[in-house]
Amino acid sequence: MIRLTLSQMRRSAGRLAAAAVAIVIGTAFVAVTLLAGNVITSTTYDSIAAQYTGADLVVRGAAPGGATEDAVRDVAGVATADEQLMSYQQLENGGRTIFQGVLAEPTDPAVLPLTVTDGALPEAAGEIALPTDVAERLDVAPGDQITLARNVLDGDQEVDEQAWTEVREKLTVSGTLDDPYGAFSMMGGAAVAPAADVQGWEADLMGPGESSGEPATLLVTLDEGVDVGQTREAITGAAATAASNAGMDVSAVDVVTPDEHAESVASEMTGGEDVIFTTFVLVFAAIALLVAALVIANTFQVLVAQRTRTLALLRCVGADKSQLRRSVLFEATLLGLASSVVGLLAGLGLGQAALAVGRGMDLGVPLPETITLTPAVVLVPVVVGTLVTLVAAFAPARAATRVAPLAALRPDEAPTAARGAGRVRLVLSLLVAVVGFALLGAGVALSTAAGEPTTGLLVGVAGGVLSFVGVLVSAVFWLPRVVALAGRLVGASGPTARLAAANTLRNPRRTAATSTALLIGVTLVGMMSTAAASARITMDAEFDGRYPVDVTVSTDLSGSGKDATPVPAGLGDTVRELDGVASVLEVPATSVQLAGDGVDEAAQVIARGMDPDEAASVLRSTESLTPLAAGTAVVPENVADVWGVTDGQTLTLTGPDGPLETTAAVTELADDAVVLVPDDLATLDAAAPTTGLWVGLDDPRDAAAVVPTIQDAVADTEAPADVLGAAVERASFQQVIDTALGIVVGLLAVAVVIALIGVANTLSLSVIERRRESATLRAIGLSKAQLRGMLAVEGVLIALVGAVLGVLLGLVYGWTGAAAALGWAGEPAIAVPWRDVLLMLGVALVAGLVASVAPARTAVRTSPVEALATE
Amino acid sequence: MDTTVYVPIPDDAPAAGARPAVTPAVRARALTKTYGRGEAEVRALDGVDVDFAAGRFTAIMGPSGSGKSTLMHLLAGLDSATSGQAFVGSTEVTGLNDKALTAVRRTRVGFVFQQFNLLPMFTAEQNITLPVELAGGTVDKMWLGTLVDTLGLGKRLTHRPAELSGGQQQRVAIARALIAQPDVVFADEPTGNLDSRSGAEVLSFLRRSVRELGRTIIMVTHDPAAAAYADRVVLIADGKIAGDITDPTPESALAGLDALRTVAAR
């Protein structure tokens, strides 16, 4: 029986190969996912371990300060012991400012996981070595000077009256550093300064004798030939004594090797991250495998149908049902195993290639040189791939047992796959779909109307999953009808198209399964992009209302208009000229006193003046400034809350030039100042200086690029102005959505690719089955081009129906999903991601055409003579 | 009783034109087809010269492996000849490219197959008109009506092949072969898959197509009873023309076939 199975496999090699591709892609996907999870873990581990390379032991939970260092250094066998101290300081050169962590230089430079690229490590006080990129941004080289602006606690003051003075010192750049192991990549890199300097800066932040109380980490090197175990105990004792002297928890003191330390930190940090990542991606791998299973089931169904005569013959000569079933399942197992191994190898190759590319791209994270093989990476893809193939072959195997021995005696007939499924399935699946859609609607209603977003989302997700299952299971009943309808539309265009349309209906089940495979992927991609588009619009509206100004430049930092320096003359024009800036509004302001019923007597706020029409040119949304008119003061909600202002009350403002009676209008404006029309402001202060620029950008999504140019322009004037970009937050939010969407769509694309292979597979199977018919058509005058055209139309019909239905379903799911998830953020917007929709339909169209190329080549090779052959 | 006597034709005799007055619809000149090379070379057709008159029903008869099917494939331009020429009307089909051959098949030649080869998803009428539609032409309704009447298909036009008997399917196939009014129809064992009654019916329809509609039909068969419906029988053996019977009867056809077998056995 096994020999027979093998010889049958050889005969069907081509068809099996097509199915194998689907499994290969699916298992490669799983393998790459698992590899990536491992890389995340090992990268985290490496980066942590790198911080301690060169150290022999690490003391954790020690008391900060020199006392512990001294105590540990006194232990016999200890060569050096240095507290790993990092102080965050502001470094400046010209107008550029960088907030940078500065590491205390250890006694033994070998403990430092950084390499000097230019110059040297600091040797004397007042020197500093900078990370290469920081030196570049500050535009300095070794030998140049930079400014350190740090805070020093003022004299002996009571704790609640502490105040700091800014001290500016010059530092000399001694060299530049690289971080080849990414040891400090999670902390934005590290500069290095002499330990005494760094300790001094930290001490200046605190009163004399005070300690931060934060447990410190010490890096210890030992003399050569010293026994680590014994020294370790001695160090623990010394550090514990020092800790108890400092009044700290002794039990927290712990001495470990660098490896032990990295392992414990890495496991703490990644207990979540890599597991979440792997689970997340594996969900998509599962979808890809589900689609692959559909393709495989399809292939086996056809194989069994084609072998009807052989199977019947076997039954005639004495094979029993279970032998036939075993034969099919054995074939599936072999195919699954072989293609899973190929898929695994492909996955490993891809993973290795990705690492090589990633290392070449300098991602700021040191990637391992080679992939790490674990039992899970090797076994999981192979086992899963084989199982999926086996399960997909169950139904065809059952079909094989149903072949009657009599079938061997019947005259040659075109093989037909099993016909439609039972009524029970139809009723059940439709029921599930209807219930699912009802739940989906209920979820949206709960989340938007009833204000129960969490319950709504849960109900909505359950409804979505249920309805999709219902739709997929019932597809075999209604999908062929849709194809028939589409076929009738294209059939009008000529006999070739009519032939193609008729062909797609000859095996409704296979057409349905092929289209369904594509439907799954396209629905999910469509859902994600629709949801993202809807979310974007909803959030845009939300942001527009909340942060109507893209970027503000203001000089009234202190919050009191008195000592506000005006914005330098000409800055407004300079900013206006910048690329990406649409409009600039110069806003005068003055400090005023508020008075009114229930208003706090100390209410001192800034009042801005602006013309409503001019403001409209800058603002994304003028909603919060709608009430602005002469005699009205627009009061932001937060200001109103602080000072006790109520909407509609009479509010008296008093400025340097006199009082003004206004009506308060409390709105959601995101500002800390009241807004008046310019004439009203002039009444309060005729010489109110321009203390702010309100800047509107061409496209707030470019904020990340435009805002720094504004910052540079402001810095060049050397005026103490602050640049605030609400647009930056908005842009980063949008970037998160876009990135997440891109990743998800990319992962789902694998499922779409597998489904498209399924389309090609179905077409080539049809071509093989219809050999005689193709020959007949050629004999009665079908040209080669027409034959190719016929198959192309078939492929496009199958692919496009799947894609169009997928897009429609995706829109429904995307909209309802966005409504259920973002119902709290106001009226959910309904958006159609036209670009993505057209792209998907275009891909389906092209893929349908491409899928028909290889089968068509086989078909046109058929000589018309074969129509005359009598088998 | 038919009294025609089988007359062997010498190998070097001129091409057998039974009635010189009629222009030949199909001609073969030194038509040769070999398969394989060297030792394994098989001459399926060995320098055949033959004319088939227009407006006549000719049967090509011979034992299995005699080369009768090969001759038909070459005459119809379905297969390429090793050497020699084949003409449909004045067009030489040997040496035409696929595009030109497709054009010939569309307008000049019709086929009737042993296995009917109707398209299962189309109705009888759609099957009949398909060749015209593939060629991008319009169906001649008058001619379609004539064919349907002659072949007795009036009540079957909306049926699909699965709903038709074998004889009915073959009549649909004949109508399909004739719809484009081709110069010649090739029929390959058209009764091979039919019981004798349906076979007789189909053969009389073929004869009526020639007599009443003026078509030209060349039929390949190994059945003397079927050959007897033809106006003329061309006998073929070992890839060569081995005899020619005008106005055959089942008996004379059988006698001719038997003579070939005895020749072959000798």
TrEMBL record, chain A:
The chain crosses the membrane at residues 275-297, 328-351, 371-395, 426-450, 456-479, 516-535, 740-768, 789-814, 834-854. Belongs to the ABC-4 integral membrane protein family. The keyword Ribonucleoprotein does not apply. It is a multi-pass membrane protein. It comes from the Bacteria. This is ABC transporter permease. It holds the Pfam family FtsX. It is found in: Cell membrane. Keywords: Cell membrane, Membrane, Transmembrane, Transmembrane helix. Its main location: membrane. Residues 283-403, 747-864 form the ABC3 transporter permease C-terminal domain. PANTHER family: ABC TRANSPORTER PERMEASE YTRF, MEMBRANE COMPONENT OF TRANSPORTER-RELATED.
Automatic annotation (TrEMBL), chain B:
InterPro entries: AAA+_ATPase (IPR003593), ABC_transporter-like_ATP-bd (IPR003439), ABC_transporter-like_CS (IPR017871), ABC_transpr_LolD-like (IPR015854), MacB-like_ATP-bd (IPR017911), P-loop_NTPase (IPR027417). PROSITE patterns: ABC_TRANSPORTER_1, ABC_TRANSPORTER_2. Coiled coil: none annotated. Keywords: ATP-binding, Nucleotide-binding, Transport. Residues 26-263 form the ABC transporter domain. One of its GO terms (molecular function) is ATP binding. PANTHER family: ABC TRANSPORTER RELATED, IMPORT ATP-BINDING PROTEIN. This is ABC transporter ATP-binding protein. It comes from Isoptericola cucumis.
